[in-house]
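Hi Y.,

Following your request, here is the sequence exactly as I used it, all 577 residues.
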Amino acid sequence: MPAGAGRPLAVGGRSTYGVRMTIVTAPKTTGRVLVVILLAQFIIVVDSTFMNVSLSTLVADFDTTVTGIQNAITLYTLVMAAFMIAGAKVGDIIGRKRAFVIGLSVYSVGTSITAISPTLAVFILGWSILEGLGAAMMLPAMMSLIVSNFAAGPARAKAYAGFAAIAGIAAGIGPIIGGLFTSYLSWRLAFASELLVALYIVTQLKIIKDAPFLGRKPRFDWTGFILSAAGLITAVLGIVMASAYGLFISRVDVEIFGQVVLAAGQVSPTVILVSIGLLFLIAFVLVERSRDRHHHDTLLDLSLFGIRAVSAGTAVQLLQYLVLTGAIFALSLYVQMELNYSAIQSGLTLLPLSLAVLLSAAVSGRVFSRRFAPRSVILAGFAIIVVGAAAMGVLARDATSGTEFILGLALVGFGAGTIASQNQNLIMSSVKPQRSNETSGVINTSQNIGASLGTSLAGALILSVFVLTATTLIDSSPVFSASEQSQLDTAVTEKAQIISDAQLSNAVAELPADQQAEILEINAEARQTALTVVYAGLALAGLLGFAAALRLPRTPPLSSTGAGSTDTSKAGTGKQP
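Below is the corresponding structure, written out as tokens. Let me know if you'd prefer a different format.
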């Protein structure tokens, strides 16, 4: 029997019923391993933003609505969030490299189906579900593979920093990539190119050293998995449904199989589903604590959150991506529907954000890391984001061109890149290598919850504010009679969608000229007000991120700590569990 089999393993002075990973000090590693891992990270994260600029094209190709495409974008990150912790645990059971290969295979099948999808349903199956599931297997394994392929100290710290920075870069430049493919080739080829990257990664698998482990393999915690997945999916889907029904009060009847279960004017399904989701998550926490007390394997070791860098850092990760993806989605929707921009024009509008992410990730990783503590750099990043989001909200009131958003976009991008260069590195440096896989699952879960919430909340808030503003303007307009106002109010409330002026003009072509002009003006003003409110909300999320970052431990600059090898979180946290 192998040493340690059948009994709990001691890690850091406490018993665990997980896997003990043998830490291999890798020989001097070429840059090829890091390139392979960063490429995998790049295609996964870029997927969450590169279709935002193709909204109008996808709506036309699939004969659907903006809300349908928004749901597909949200579902991709939601699937990753719901299955990420489970993916990390599977990696513990079957091995990190094997989990990475299986995830890469599922991801490749998904991107192939997406590239040839004839309908929105098939598109969602390939992109949102299969690619999301593949990514949930790959991402946690990749963080552990960094441990086994890079020696503890500066080499591992740089690999962690690169892994974190490439996520911010991919999210930032995704709109440019999507715009180029959609305008000059096809959005389908964007997904096909991901398959080529995946095939290249397959050819390089032999150079990646696995993370071997000894001891008893943990059993999969099915109860914890069902509760956590149900909680996350239910809560986020509830927020997604706010676009169609409203955040708090349902705008229209909610029907299931033709039966009205909630009448218009009653509580929104968003409130009900989010509440149910939170109950599932509370049950998950209680079950995991009970299993731990009885020395049963758990899906997630909740003691991780006793490490302040982990608990505060995951909140930072969530809020950073909420702001970044929300900003990209909201502005992409605005310039395509308000300014009638093409995919490439939309991508170029977001170029200041992309360039700022690239610049800040490089500067923060190479310069700020050497001079300033991660906590200070992250706080500065959120302060910059708040200023940028607030500036965009002000500009949205009277903007007539995408160029007017340059300053605000650059600030949001610079702040996001600054945070990305520090936060993951700080979190991973605070835990022992044996716990890298599980910690990675937590980090990536929070990141994808943030991305899901960013897109879904931005969409929901835009429509809610749009409906409220449009109906208010209609009711105060002298152009319409009382009966016409009532009819228009009903139409806006029940069929709320963000559409272009051209689409609206076709829809109201039979009305008198003065009423057509009035409707177009109301539509434009309601959209502008909605965007202003959304960016005010994103600025508030940035402030919440700043508050979360205040809880991060005070540590020296990461470049001076030998990140990745020691526990840097002891300041103000006590001994690591």
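The two ends are 28 Å apart (CA to CA).

Thanks again,
Q.
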